[in-house]
Amino acid sequence: MAHIVGGIFTSHVPAIGGAIARGLQDDPYWKPFFDGFHPIHRWLAGARPDVAVIFYNDHGLNFFLDKMPTFAVGAAAEYHNADEGWGLPVMKPFPGAQALSWHIIEHLVNSEFDITMCQDMTVDHALTVPLALSWPGADNRPVKIVPIAINTVQHPLPSPKRCLALGRAVHEALLTWEGAERVVIFGTGGLSHQLDGERAGFINKDYDRFCMDNLGADPDALTTHSAVDIVELAGSQGIEIVNWIAARGAMGPHVHEVSRNYHIPISNTAAATMLLEAGQALSRVA
């Protein structure tokens, strides 16, 4: 079976990609956020994953309001990035873990998840920015990827409970995979933020800390709120926490917190990063 080494949870704000492109990691505005990735870089050097399973949300590059799947799983040999209009450099394609993708898809369908299977899938900043943060270098491609997109845009939105169940089903699929790949799980987006309307710039530190405090120890606590509740608590884009919830489900029951970082604001967003190691009884490293 696949060996799940850990999970990386991070914001994916497009402006982060712009800061990387301009080499602003040590700029006073950006440094507190980028410093949160130093422990992740050290951990990845030791963990040496082969595959990244990435729970994220598409922002219109691949899906739009006229066709918005609730859950979509990539099954491509490679995934192309494209210009989203943010001024970010277009990255070269990411290699896909195609056989593992199909195994996950088959397990999800057998587990009665109605998903969209994508043999051709374009990926946006919600996937490219976290990978660039984790493995600096524009041409760095140390892992193959399995992208899993969750609808966080078009109502009705999937419930946090359903997203956690999705992640747990992915975990089951990884346990039944015959390969020996070392897998890192990503959950991207958030935390609290709203980009438009009367509450533009809204941040809820209390809810963000509730999510970070419970993600490892008690992810079911994050499902006590409905999707609409989360929009109220965390802003219309704060619903991206469901990507974190699904990714946590994919890690299995036992994790160990290695590091966390919380910094506000980054481009009107509560920017956060967490690293959880898989397969150990829960404890917290200060």
From TrEMBL:
Keyword Acetylation included in the entry's annotation: no
Keyword Iron: no
Protein name: Protocatechuate 4,5-dioxygenase beta chain
GO MF term list: protocatechuate 4,5-dioxygenase activity
Endpoints of the signal sequence: none
EC class (word): oxidoreductase
Domain of life: Bacteria
Extradiol ring-cleavage dioxygenase class III enzyme subunit B domain sequence ranges: 7-269
Xref: InterPro entries: Xdiol_dOase_suB
Keywords noted in UniProt: Oxidoreductase
EC number: 1.13.11.8
SUPFAM superfamilies, alphabetized: LigB-like
